[in-house]
User: Fold this.
Amino acid sequence: MAENKVVDACNTFCPGPLMELITYMKQASVGDTLELLSTDEGSAADIPEWIYKVGHEVISNEKMDGIWHIKVRKTK
Amino acid sequence: MKILIVGGGTGGTILANHLSRRLGSEIRAGKVELTLLSASDRHMYQPGLLYVAFGQMTPDQLYRDEASLLEPEVDFHVDPVDKFQLDQNHVVTKGGKSYAYDILVIATGSRIVPEEVPGLSEGAETFYTEESAVRLHKRLMEFQGGTVAMVVSIPHKCPVAPVEAMFMLHDFFKSRGIRDKVTLRYQYPTNRVHATANVARWAKPEFDKAGIEYETLFNLKSVDPVKKIVYSEEGTEVKYDLLIAVPPHRGMEIIEQNHLDQGGWIPTDRFKLTMNGRDNVYVIGDATNIPVSKTGSAAHFESEVLAANIVARIKTGTDSPVREYDGKVYCFIEAGFDRATYNAFDYVNLPDLKPPSKPIHWFKVAYNQMYWTSVRGLL
Assistant:
């Protein structure tokens, strides 16, 4: 059964939100969804760029109360 | 009150020394017991491994006897933990001894797991162990020309190490007079040459100046050691003559065997440093899942915060933390053999890199010795 996990990468600079997401993506199973929380403005573009290049799926990407919520699905 | 620290690396050792000094009278009066359990009787200065790879330090310079670094009040045993029985507030060691505690601190660190990437162990050199750093040094000395490629796995210890290694490779081959015969190629997982935007902003023009080629969004998938090709998750490949890898890391096996982890790391409150769901179990250093760099620097600053909170708990009965870990990290970044800068940040303040300079490099070289003062909790 697919799992949903929240990865809180708010206020982190090194290694930073994308590295955090990749770490958790490696641990996830195909079909799992991860919701990355980030206060880094660059994440809104950086995360989808990596997701599309590897071939996973971006489900949603929105900013709420100063925090980016980027939901992705592991597809392979 | 029984305080038990598991792990004799940077975090565990600094914490033990701070607690020993602050609680010396309580320990001598028998009111507090302070015990440190470690898997080794030797303590390694791990950042020195990079210098071993480039022939600037020898392995013997990286070690001290752990007992020689500890205050005499610390009850130190080389007897690694086998079972964590957190509901009963005690651990059982590999030697069969049982240690009860009122406060437990887990500082077990991390390990490299190159076996997670097919072909990596056979095809790549690294600098994350004494043996591998020595072997890499020999390979670098024998190298006569061709492509040296760097690949970086996630997660890994010391996020600036791959950048430092590239600048040092540039200066190493320059000093050997064969830089023009060597192509330096850097492959990195994120869409910049470093995950931290300000580090990337500084490093990219420096790479250009040094003639270091780079490819971003390259997540290591596998290595073919026969064809000498490294493949990425993104579908690209790089041919190499010498491959240097920053291998993937995980928490220690004992943490996974005791089911304390999620994906190898212990879920930890990023401010209080408590293990999630446990008020009397703390986690510091690489073992945590806190989203900060896995470095001795983070372990150092975490241990200072935790020492203050444990001391307050014992001396004043204060259960709430008197200090919170603010995400502070300070790391030197070597920009070659004679220049360095530094990366300093916390949960609020971004790193703001200064241009590399010789004095910062000299400070780093001095710190390679000053570490032994630092780990005693004096600096």
